[in-house]
Amino acid sequence: MKKKQLTALLLSAAMALSLLSGCGGNAASSGSTASQESAGETESQGIREYTAFFAVPGTEINDDNEIQAAIADITGARVKETWLTGQTAQEAVGTMIAGGEYPDFIDGSDGQIQLYEAGALVALDDYLDKYPNIKEFYSDAEWDKVRQEDGKIYWIPQFGNIWEKDMSAVHSDEAFWIQTRVLKWAGYPEVKTMDQYFDLIESYNEANPSMEDGTANIPYTILCDDWRYFCLENAPQFLDGHPNDGSVIVDTDTLKIVDYNTTPTAKRYFQKLNEEFQKGIVDPESFTQPYDEYIAKLSTGRVLGMIDQWWNYAYSVNDSLKQQGLDKQGCDYVPLPITISEDIKNMWHTSDGTLNVSNGLGITTSCKDIDGALQFINDLLSPEVLTLRNWGIEGVDYNKDENGVFSRTDEMRTNASDPAYKASHLCTYSYFPNYSGMSKDGINAATPAEQPQEFLDGLQADVQECLEAYGCSTYVEMIGTNTPPGPWYPMYSYSNTMTTSTPGGTAWTKMGEIKHEYLPKVVMASDFESAWEEYMKVYSDCKPEDFLSEMQTELDRRIQLAKDNGEY
Fold first, then answer.
1. What is the Cα gyration radius of the chain?
2. Complete domains list, the chain, with CATH
């Protein structure tokens, strides 16, 4: 579309939206006097400007991004977002704390509790009633789960909030992933166990050691960089048929905490990786490659399989594969419902959202316009702005039929996967609170990825063929779905907040350090049994019993709270 046409559409959309109740007409003026001096208002446009830092890798958009400008016209504000580069989350947050200066908005990721303990975050309790979209984002019971030790709320968890009903088509969590070319070559077999998975990869690589251009395949790689070593260490819980509690297994019969690091399944899993490493199936660079190199490697199409969280790789890798035409070689990934044995029901995917209270979007003490910042979040949650964030501009990024149903053309889908187009045009404000599930129009899904027909139409041909072969239309159908096991879920929302101020937190820190150091050694060892025995001894010296005891106390507390609220 020509620039003039696009500009006209953007302006008309902004004007129309500003006339609707609950959006930017009111927002633009709210707190404007204070923000003119303190929030860096742009004089020529009357737009309040804020800063944000997210302690995760991300991609910045252009300063003249078109949808960001449209959102600014509606809300009266824009945010300059920066992302983590060259440091861990805790290092980046620690540097900010040492300097005493912060952006207006922040999500500290693994460093969130550091921000709280440093007094860097504004308590939100006295503000929430003024901003109904924020207040209604969670129920009172859910907000209570976000409260810290002093009883106050300091951040807003942004993700996993489902409006009306779960519309998930993508399995956005962890799984054993495999390229469609491998499954197609084998005639789309049922693959249900860890052994079957690796047997298939071995067989395919033996018969097809290289890509079409002669580049050697990488049968299986593992990401171990920094906190992302979850790609290596936490599979045993899934293999035993438990969902992603992250740090522990909760036995649903006894309601007791179990350490998945020391189970028979854990030993079998790491022994299998050891065997595959000795065969040359596991990438020898697995334990030294940084995250960027891992993503670049997946983007070449050479890697046949890996275990990972979908969100950790897909946003960049899938677009890259598409842009290179590697989808035509079957290089796209699909998830498989792997367990340790066929008699175990997999629980890799849970429906109905997940409230992770360990971190979220906070407003810092450096922000000089707290009300204006909260008004911006409030406006981002209005139905009109949500559509702009998630779908874009009607007629440019999606079409609407006579029944109000949204869809995209092939050109629109291509644009949405183009990094240059996204940088100049799309603005999701991805680390600000957002909904999934249904859109508030009651017709469409909140996002294109959840719109059933749009999701299917937007898939590459190799994935469509694969899903059809298995009688599925979504990744979720392929892997299966389950409801969360109980009101405690997920337990990682507690362990992620633990510090060395308690024996359990000290043990947790040491356990992580030991796993990060020793598990690569276990996988690469020429004598697995000796390496495993040494690892278990050093691991036990960390006093994991202290960690497990603290987690049991938290589990009991969550269950009792749910009972008190009539939820359990």
1. 24
2. 3-167+355-452 (3.40.190.10), 174-350 (3.40.190.10), 492-564 (no CATH)
